[in-house]
Specification:
heterodimer; A: Rossmann fold; 12 strands; 31% helix; globular; B: 309 residues; mainly alpha; membrane (chain B); cell membrane (chain B); ABC_BtuC-like (chain B); transmembrane helix (chain B); Zinc ABC transporter permease (chain B)
Chain lengths: 289, 309
Amino acid sequence: MTQNDIPSMAQRSDIATAALAIRGMTVSYGEKPAVFSVDLTVPRGAMMAIIGPNGAGKSTLLKAALGVVPTLSGEAYVFGKPLAQMRARIAYVPQRASVDWDFPARVIDVVAMGLYRELGLLGRMTGAHRARAAESLARVGMSDFAHRQIGQLSGGQQQRVFLARALAQEADLYLLDEPFAGVDAATEKAIIAVLQALKDQGKTVVAVHHDLATVKDYFDHVFLINKSRIAEGPVEAAFTPDNLQKAYGGRLVTAQLDPASQITPVVPPRKDLASGLAPKGSGTVGGAG
Amino acid sequence: MSGAEFVPLSLTPLLIGSFAAMACALPGNFLVLRRQALIGDAISHVVLPGIVVAFLLTGMVATWPMMLGAGGAALIAVLLIEAVRRIGRIEPGAAMGVVFTTMFAGGVLLLELSDTSSVHLDVEHALYGNLESLIWLDAFGWHSLFEAEALRGVPPELWRMAAVLVAVIGFIALFWRALAISSFDEGFARTLGLRTGALGGALVAVSAIAAVAAFDAVGSIIVIAMFICPPAAARMMTNQLGRQVAWSMVFAVTSAVLGYVFAGYGPLWLGFDNSVSAAGMIAVVSGIILALAALFGPHRARRGAPLAG
């Protein structure tokens, strides 16, 4: 089930067994569709990267699946049931830049937002709730910052707070939108460690990702998108130079395939990377105009 | 000042002014945090033509027709803003500015053209209300607060404003957690199943109710000032939402009380023998509080705070 065309009979059972199944999702922000008729199936326990060039609809697909942006068509199923019934089992980490960090809240207040589905409008925070929020913060190494105003944090720290909020939700499916964008190397390591630990607990993780050099190290499944689906499946099967060329087109200047282990594609530098990641080993994201 | 003088002449205007200020400042906290402060301004302006049309249709100044007229005007304003934004491809702030100033000006023209001489509905009333005239002549001292006979003579604006304030407090208290989450991170709020569109609409509707009730009692100047000044000043006093709202209430009441007292007695202290508009003075005091908070507030300079422009 790693190739582009999945038989429709198999699709049904996929929906029932998958952690997340998106079917026929189309989103438009104007005249041209941002995401066109996309099917995506995330097996339970998978750690999947959604990759594709800028403007390919990676974040939009995630937001559409969660009902954050309106869709023209399409359905999302979570653990076999429609999204609306399964919200309690989902945790979403939006792009850090999507919110106003000057909001009057402390770190612990933001993490406590992850408890909303349990507390509801008026439920009282108990000691157990507070302990869970504190523990979530500890898992991302931010315990010392609990009472800081969120605007005083660095970008990497803000990203960790968002992850802690998702951990407090105690979900089974974690959806992250560019969790490594513009964060320091230490934060990237801390985040990937947390995500690996979630996978080890049997949770499912899906992340919009932009650093092709780390796909093989961090993820076991990959989904390539450029408006519509290019390929999906286990990394070794779907993360091929051929598929990358299809997704990135002319923007992917060269894709060197080392048959032994590593794919090191060279993509043009991105603005949001400029302040962010340190190059990793030989798998360098380098500039070739 | 003795109770015999204070209760009939100053107690009710002070209470009505304070209630109006609090009813507007409460939702104002969330409007300012959502970068929607202009909406409060817009509402208080578009309310005028709605109230005038309601008056022209019914021939009386009564609460329900005015509320309905104001609500209808707010709805038309929202549609017009959307239309101007889409057709003219103008940014939302500019579209809002065009629509509400035009509708307010239209309301002023309607008022001048229509015969409203029999009722206290005129341009001045619309701008700065009639706070000073909301006196309680049936009272003769503090003991009147316990006399049914005297209480019947309390200006109805007091009960109306108090009821609206209770409703506003109820809404904010009930939806506090949801408002906080969706104001900070709307996308995340939606993944929790929160209906953020409906919540935002309800916040604007509650603001509109507060604006219409306050407009009737104290005019549009206070409404505009109270939606923005106390919350904006409060933001510079603390980094926690709950404390910010508490500070905004303190600032709203301080503005109302000091403004009323300064308007009545300030000119006398300065050697003049007249008094000035209470509504105008309340708005000025709230502006001064904002300036003081900007100069001395403990959280005035924040990392991550938006810079001018």
